Amino acid sequence: MASARFLIAGSLLFTFLQLRTPTATTARQWLSTAIAGTLMLAGANGLVCWAEQTVPSGLAALLVGSTPLWMVLIDWLFFRGTRPTVRVCVGLIVGLGGVGLLVGPAEMSDRMVNPAGAIGLMCACLLWSVGSLVFRRAAQPKSTFLSVSMQMLCGGAVLMVVGTAAGEWSRIAWDSISVGSLLALLYLIVFGAIVGLTAYVWLLRVCSAAHVATYAYVNPVVAVFLGWLMAGEALTPLTMFAAAIIIGAVFIINRGGQVHIPRVVHRLRP
After folding, report:
1. Helix %, strand %, coil % for the chain, to 5?
2. Over the stretch 84-118, which tens digit does the pLDDT of each residue have?
C-alpha cells in the first residue's frame, strides 16, 4: 500500500512535469533522491506502517512526536548545524509533552505494547531525521516538485521490493477493497504525498531543522480537529489544553530564529 501510494504519486508528478517542461536529470541527482527516498519513505514511513499494526496509535503518535528532538540533535552533532538555543530546547520539550498530553495515558496503554513495534517507530524517527538532513545537503534538481517526484519513485520502488520479498502480495484481500479504502488511498496520494511531501521538502530548503521538525507536533493536533470535524469525535477541555501547549511550543521554537523565505520562494515553482 505504501509502495503504491508513492509510486503512483511520483509517476503522476514526474510525468506531468516532464510533459510541461522537459528537464534533464543527472545520475548524481537520482542517487541523492534515491538515498533520501530510501531513508525517509521506505525506511521511516515503511516502519511506521509496519509498527502501527502492533503499537497503539497513541503511543505511536508520541514516539513519532520525538522526531523534532532527534532532528535538531543530529543536525547539531553530525551535520554541523546550528547549536540549539535554550528557547528551542524548551520549545521541543514542551511540544513533546503536549503531544503526550494530547494522546493521553489511556490511548497509549489500551493494549500490550509490542517491543519490536516500539523499536521500529524509534528507528523510523532516526531514519526520517537523517534522511531529511541528508536531503538538505544533497544534489537536487532546482525544481522542488521534480525533486519530490524522484524521491517518491525511488522510495516507492524500494518499498515494492521489500513488500514483495516479505510475501505481502499473497496477503492482499482483493475482495475487501472498498470505495472508501480507494478514496483513502487517493487522499494519501494527493494530499499526503504530492502536496504534503512537496511542502515538507521545500521547507527543508528554506528553514532550519528545528523549524521544519515542528510538523511532528502539529500533525496530532490536525488529526484531532479533523476527527471532530469529520467523524464527530469529542473535543474535551484536556484536548484543547494540550493543543494550546503544542501550538505554544511551535511558537517558542519559531521565535528562536528567523526564517528568510522571500528570497527563495522562486524555488517552489515547477
Report:
1. 80, 0, 20
2. 888 888 888 988 888 888 766 655 554 566 788 88
Contact 231, 87 (CB under 8 A): no
And the C-alpha cell for 44?
Answer: 521511516
CA-angle at 117, arms to 172 and 38, nearest 5° = 70
Question: Which grid coordinates are listed for 194?
Answer: 504530492
Neighbours of 152 (CB within 10 A): 29
What span, in angstroms and rounded, lies between the C-alpha atoms of 11 and 221? Answer: 31
Backbone angles phi, psi at 84, to 5 degrees: -65, 130
* Cell numbers placing 130: 537523517
Helix (H) or strand (E) holding 24: none
C-beta separation of 153 from 10 below 8 A: yes
**pTM for the predicted model, two decimal places:** 0.83
